[in-house]
Specification:
The complex is a heterodimer. Chain A is mainly alpha-helical. Chain A has a single domain, classed as de novo design (two linked rop proteins). Chain A is built from 5 helices and 3 strands. The longest helix of chain A is centred in the last third of the chain and has 36 residues. Chain A is elongated, with a radius of gyration of 18 Å. In chain B, 62% of the residues lie in helices and 10% in strands. Chain B has a 5-stranded mixed beta sheet with strand order 1-3-2-5-6. The chains are: A mainly alpha, B alpha+beta.
């Protein structure tokens, strides 16, 4: 069964992540030159060679990822498809791995922090946790029934 | 009689099926409308937020609403003619790469507009992320004590890469002081003096009061301006600003 609450979490966080990474992507394409900031980390992060992957800014992959989570969850609810929902829940592993890698880069390679990148990492981690919960809920009904039988 | 009853039952069944089907058709139409609304809404939301974000990020640099609270005083490091009517105040950090990138731009502006615009340098070392930023600010202030603030300022920016991550920044700065022909003993004593430290802290405090949270931050005639891209944009901005005020005066 698809948990409505977790699905709502996916949709909300997916949208939040979409806003966050589209801000970074927009900043990359038409922002004013990035400056050194206590809060945003230095231009080191956004202007480091790690900010671009396969010719596209990393932020753009983030936009695609969060948008996919957002849209696929709505599609899963719309079609009542547990299959799509399960797929979304597994996709969050991808986001977690990517975020872990980018956080590692900021901490140990670039040695500068970018607030919006950290925000994205937090969102991805929460999505991953929700993903675990979602998969549990998908098999949960039988478990609950059994528990009720015993009780 | 039995036959008749069966007939009516069949008829009834057919009738029911018919009703059901027409009901199903209506339900399907409703579902299609609902889905169209849902996906249309989703599409509109995504498109609108993408558009809004692009607009927000590329917004007009002059729309930044922030005012410089501390006006230029005798304590400030000023370049340009004292008779100049306009003031460009820069809050900067010697270790900040972006400040380093702006350094040649501001220098060029000082050359070109020095007669009309005074350029003020204020320290805003981001010591949280730049380990040698404060030491560099002290070095420039101390050089200033011997009348060579701007010379040290230039050296620090020009050679930023060679000291930014160094463990021996203090020695490197002392080397610069010698290069500029400063009294080395006095330079070191000044670096450790509370007066120099207070000057740097005072600059930073004044920046915080005016809402500075990144470097470089520029204020033109007391109003904050977003960082312009390159010399050409800065020149265009100044030409417009000076042109407008020239019209005001005439």
């Amino acid at each position: 069964m698809i948990s409505k609450r977790i699905a709502a979490g996916f949709i909300a966080l997916g949208f939040l992540g979409f806003l966050d990474s589209s801000y970074l992507a927009a900043k990359y394409y038409f922002g004013t030159p990035i400056n050194c900031s206590i809060f945003e980390g230095c231009n080191q992060v956004a202007s480091s060679p790690y900010a671009v992957m396969f010719g596209l800014p990393v932020a753009l992959y983030g936009v695609a990822y969060y948008l996919a989570i957002f849209i696929a969850t709505i599609a899963a609810l719309d079609a009542g498809s547990a299959k799509i929902f399960r797929l979304v829940s597994w996709a969050t592993v991808l986001g977690l791995l990517a975020s872990a890698y980018f956080t590692y880069l900021q901490a140990f390679v670039i040695s500068a922090w970018c607030l919006y990148c950290l925000g994205s990492a937090a969102i991805s981690t929460t999505l991953f946790v929700l993903g675990i919960m979602a998969r549990r809920k998908l098999v949960a009904p039988t478990v609950v029934q059994r528990a009720e039988d015993h009780g | 009689m039995n036959e008749e009853r069966q007939l009516t039952r069949q008829e009834r069944r057919a009738l029911r099926r018919e009703e059901k089907e027409s009901g199903r058709g209506a339900a399907r139409r409703r579902r299609i409308v609902r889905r169209a609304l849902l996906w249309g809404g989703v599409l509109a939301l995504v498109a609108l937020s993408a558009w809004g974000m692009a607009r927000f990020v590329s917004s007009d640099p002059l729309n930044v609403k922030s005012v410089l609270l501390d006006t230029v005083s005798a304590d400030d490091w000023v370049s340009g003619s004292p008779a100049a009517k306009h003031v460009l105040v820069e809050y900067s950090d010697f270790q900040c790469p972006a400040c380093g990138a702006y350094y040649p731009i501001v220098k060029q502006l000082a050359r070109e507009y020095g007669d009309r615009v005074r350029i003020v340098y204020r320290d805003f070392p981001l010591s949280e992320i730049h380990r040698n930023a404060r030491a560099a600010a002290f070095a420039a202030e101390s050089a200033g004590k011997q009348g060579k603030f701007w010379e040290m300022h230039d050296l620090l920016f020009e050679r930023q890469k060679s000291w930014e991550n160094s463990n021996d920044a203090a020695d490197i700065f002392l080397g610069y002081a010698r290069e500029l022909g400063l009294d080395a003993d006095k330079f070191v004593a000044d670096i450790n003096s509370t007066e120099v430290r207070d000057n740097v802290d005072r600059d930073r405090q004044s920046g915080l009061r005016s809402g500075v949270n990144s470097t470089p931050t520029f204020f033109f005639d007391g109003r904050r301006i977003a960082n312009l891209r390159g010399y050409a944009e800065f020149k265009q901005f100044l030409d417009e600003a000076l042109g407008v005020s020239a019209e005001d005066e005439s």
